[in-house]
Amino acid sequence: MEKHKEAFFKLLELLIDGGLVKENEKHRIDSIHIIANVAVPAATELIRQGLDNA
């Protein structure tokens, strides 16, 4: 199995064991939230770097 799939299924197993996700339960993930959470810190970092270099 590919490494990213192994990591995903291990994480899923931990979530099920922790009671955060029920086994065989369907979920949807909205990738917009993932992109937004990554994009904001990156923009903030670029602004900080620009101010430091000014």
Keywords:
mainly alpha, 70% helix, 54 residues, elongated, 0% strand
Structure notes:
The protein is an all-alpha fold and 54 residues long. It has one domain. Helices cover 70% and strands 0% of the residues. It contains 2 helices and no strands. The protein has helices at 3-17, 31-53. The termini are far apart.
Q: Please, how many helices?
A: 2
Q: Which runs of at least 5 residues are low in confidence (pLDDT < 50)?
A: none
Helix content: over 70%
- Rounded mean pLDDT score: 82
How far apart are the termini? 49 Å
Secondary-structure element order, as H and E? HH
Helix-strand category? mainly alpha
The gyration radius over C-alpha positions equals 18 Å
Number of strands: 0
- Sheet of most strands: none
Please, how many domains? 1
What's the quick description here?
This protein is mostly helical and 54 residues long.
Question: Which helices and strands, and how do they pair?
Answer:
Elements: H1 3-17, H2 31-53
